[in-house]
Every structure is written in structure tokens, then in C-alpha cells.
Automatic annotation (TrEMBL):
Pfam families: PMD. The chain crosses the membrane at residues 72-91, 111-128. GO terms for biological process: meristem maintenance. This is Aminotransferase-like plant mobile domain-containing protein. Signal peptide: none annotated. Keywords: Membrane, Transmembrane, Transmembrane helix. Residues 2-293 form the Aminotransferase-like plant mobile domain. InterPro entries: AminoTfrase-like_pln_mobile (IPR019557), MAIN-like (IPR044824).
């Protein structure tokens, strides 16, 4: 959340938003009531989206029309929906926005009470979970939040510290063509070295965005019907603390009082920082941490080109089938699916993906 706060200057304090998905019928009613669209046009547009969505291009045209007609209430809501749909709630197609997000702006006086930082983070976490699957080709959410890696984004050519010191930190970075596809990002992230990581990346930005202890909350975050784990005890060096062996991951399916935990975040903050002390160097860790890390980390997260590579054990979950014949079957199926760029949701490849999962379980 500290990343979101400093990069985008979005508020992280506030309440979570909890409404569920809406039907196509409700999507039609919403644009009629809150965007000033006729019933006929609304039905036609939602039908063309093949679901409870609105097209961003259509929203832009609608915004221009309301602005020209001085219909400021409609124009404001249309603009806000278009804004979040193209940034923090960006759909994987980058052409649609979910209709349910219009519910956020039914009462504009309540907007400042939401945790927009958590909203951006939860949405990105959800799409990063999809991107961890080899069949995923596109990253949704707000990719600007990963642009500040030096090897992913690039410094803006016209950015000057003296002129832009108070602006969101993301303004330092500009879009690098071609790196938002997941297949392009994977090798870049795999080849990161310690020199590519800025451990205390916002220390020079605190004059404009102070650190909020809420960022040290450990628990679950939610937005709408999406719930994700937020495990700050895994990246303590970013906040100046010695890293220790973190607690086991949370089971968000068992979480029942997320809103209560969020309000009483002080308890989790104490639990996070009690086992550690302030670090003297960025690489400072507690005894036993590195041994634990090398036992559970994925080998490809280490730089692939080294004169003297470290011995890193392959985790059990990544070892593959134990039987040699099943391993060959799994390799052949996997190789073919990658060759044809198969997506797991494609019906024509359903049997092959099922065979792949069976082979990996033996």
C-alpha cells in the first residue's frame, strides 16, 4: 500500500467496498439512471458488450456529449467511471469497464471515504494471480504500478526533480512499448539482480507522502467480491526492518472479519514488527532467513547468468512428475500447448490441459 500511496497518491485509509456483481438488466438500469442514457441505447450497448460491461470509447463519447450540453452531474459520473476503468480497474482487454463500478459513484459524497489504494492493489493482485499461470498472456489492473522497475519502465525524458517533486512518484516513469504483455515481463523479472532493486525506494519522497503505519498491516484486503492476502512480513526491508522468516500464508477463504481486522490494524502492526529490529544496511536480515529463503524460493528468481551459481534446491511443488514416463508425457503436452499459444479457457484445448494436469499429479 505504501507503493500505491507514493506512486499514485491515492488514499489508502478508508472503508472497503462490498457490492456483488450486477446482471445485464441492472447494468442497463444504472446507465439510464446515472449516465442519462435512453433505455433503448442502454440495452443496445450492454448487449453489444456481451456482459455487464461498458465500452470505454462509448463512455468517452457520452462524456463529451454531456459536457457540451452542460449536464455536469452526468458528465462527472461518466468521467469518473471512465477514469477508473482505464487505470486502477483496467480490464484485460483495456477496452471495457465492469458495470458494477458505476455503483461507486451513485453518491459522490461517499467517494472520499473509500480506500482507493486498497482497491488498486486488490485488483492488481487478482490479475497477478492470473499472470502466474503459464497460459495467461495479458496483465490486467494498473500496470503503472510495476513500471518503476528500472528494467521494465524507463525514466521520463522530460521529468525533472525540481519541477515535479510534489507529483506522484509514478510520474518519473514513462511507458516502454511492448512490455505489458506477460510473456515479455516474465524474462525481465527473472533476470533481475540485486542491483536492479531499490530497497528503500521512497525515502526521498516522504516530504510529499509520509509513511503511514497502516501499510504494515498484515491480513486480508477486499474490494467488491475479491479477497486477497496482504503479507507485509515478507518485504520488511522496504520499510527499514531486518527481514525474518515470515509466518505461513493466510487462508483468505477462512477470513470472516476483514473489516474488523482492518479497523484494528494496530494489533497486526505490532505482531509484524515485534520479532525484528531496524536494519543497518538494505541487505540486513535475521539469522536463518537466507537458509529458509533458498529452500522455498523458485530457482528462476536468481540471476540466470553467474560465474559461480548458488546451489538452490528445487522445491517439491516444482519438481514435476516422479515417474520418468509421466514426466515425458507432461513435457510433450506442455511443449505443444506453448507452441500453439493455447489458453486454458479455450474449449478446443480442454482435453489437453486436463491430460497435462493428470500427468503432473503422478
Amino acid at each position: 500500500m505504501d507503493d500505491v500511496s507514493c506512486l499514485l497518491h491515492l488514499p489508502i485509509r478508508g472503508i472497503f467496498w462490498s457490492p456483488q456483481d450486477v446482471t445485464e438488466e441492472v447494468a442497463v438500469e444504472l446507465v439510464v439512471d446515472y449516465l442519462g442514457v435512453s433505455q433503448c441505447e442502454a440495452q443496445s450497448h450492454v448487449r453489444s458488450c456481451k456482459g455487464s460491461y461498458y465500452k470505454l470509447e462509448w463512455l468517452y463519447d457520452l462524456f463529451v456529449q454531456h459536457k457540451a450540453a452542460s449536464s455536469w452531474a452526468y458528465a462527472t459520473i461518466t468521467y469518473l467511471l471512465m477514469l477508473v476503468g482505464s487505470t486502477i480497474f483496467a480490464y484485460k482487454t483495456f477496452t471495457l469497464v465492469e458495470a458494477r463500478y458505476l455503483l461507486l459513484f451513485m453518491d459522490l459524497d461517499r467517494c472520499s471515504g473509500y480506500s482507493w489504494g486498497a482497491a488498486a492493489l486488490v485488483t492488481l493482485y487478482r490479475y497477478l494471480g492470473d499472470a502466474s499461470m503459464f497460459s495467461c498472456k495479458q496483465l490486467g489492473g494498473y500496470p503503472t504500478l510495476v513500471q518503476y522497475f528500472p528494467t521494465v519502465g524507463k525514466r521520463g525524458e522530460n521529468w525533472k526533480l525540481a519541477d515535479n517533486c510534489g507529483l506522484p512518484r509514478a510520474m518519473r516513469w514513462s511507458y516502454r512499448q511492448g512490455v505489458l504483455k506477460v510473456d515479455d515481463l516474465r524474462p525481465i523479472l527473472d533476470e533481475l539482480t540485486p542491483a536492479d532493486v531499490i530497497w528503500r525506494l521512497f525515502d526521498d519522497h516522504r516530504a510529499w507522502r509520509q509513511f503511514d503505519e497502516l501499510c504494515l498491516y498484515r491480513g486480508c484486503l477486499k474490494w467488491g467480491d475479491t479477497v486477497v492476502p496482504y503479507l507485509l512480513d515478507r518485504c520488511l526491508r522496504q520499510f527499514g526492518y531486518k527481514q525474518y522468516v515470515p509466518s505461513p500464508p493466510l487462508d483468505c477463504m477462512m477470513a470472516t472479519d476483514i473489516d474488523v481486522d482492518w479497523i484494528g490494524y494496530h494489533q497486526s502492526v505490532i505482531a509484524v514488527i515485534r520479532p525484528t529490529t531496524l536494519a543497518t544496511t538494505p541487505s540486513d536480515v535475521e539469522d536463518g532467513y537466507l537458509e529458509w529463503y533458498y529452500c522455498v524460493s523458485h530457482p528462476r528468481l536468481l540471476p540466470p547468468h553467474r560465474d559461480d551459481p548458488r546451489e538452490v534446491p528445487v522445491p517439491v511443488y516444482d519438481a514435476g512428475p516422479s515417474d520418468p514416463d509421466w514426466a515425458r508425457v507432461s513435457t510433450f503436452i506442455h511443449r505443444y500447448l506453448r507452441h500453439v499459444n493455447a489458453e486454458e479457457e479455450d474449449p478446443q484445448f480442454a482435453d489437453l490441459f486436463e491430460a497435462l494436469h493428470i500427468s503432473r499429479s503422478h
